[in-house]
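I am writing to request your help with a piece of structural work I have in hand. Thank you for your consideration; the sequence and its tokens are set out here:
=====
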Amino acid sequence: MSGLGKEGVLCNCTNRAHPALKLLVAFLSSVGLLAIVVLLAVLLRMERSNPPTLIAHPNAHWVGAEDGGVFVEIAKAEAPDYYVQVRHESGEIWSEGWVRYGTKDGYPLSAAGIVGFDGVELYLHTSMAMTPEKSKDQ
């Protein structure tokens, strides 16, 4: 019997490994275990971020990020004039008023086209491209 030592006892073959090799295996195992734990913690903390909604104002569009923002709603559309309401996260009115918006193509203003509000002015997505040279038609 090849696995038996003296007196019929199984030999303890793991004691034959070099102590430095044991330390290396233990170190790599603990690093791998730590990597798995960190990966699971990161995956659990990641959330799919859905923009907030206002139940009382379903057409209000969230403009902001996870650290804050406002809701913007176009309450009346009489192109090229639009009545825009800006609301706090709680739904209370922050600012409201008429905005005149017109493009050469005649596209209407939509709440999705409003990308920011600084407390006074609305910032619109205009699809203007940056160019390295000044336009010749100005």
In short: Residues 61-124 form a domain with the Double Stranded RNA Binding Domain fold (CATH 3.30.160).
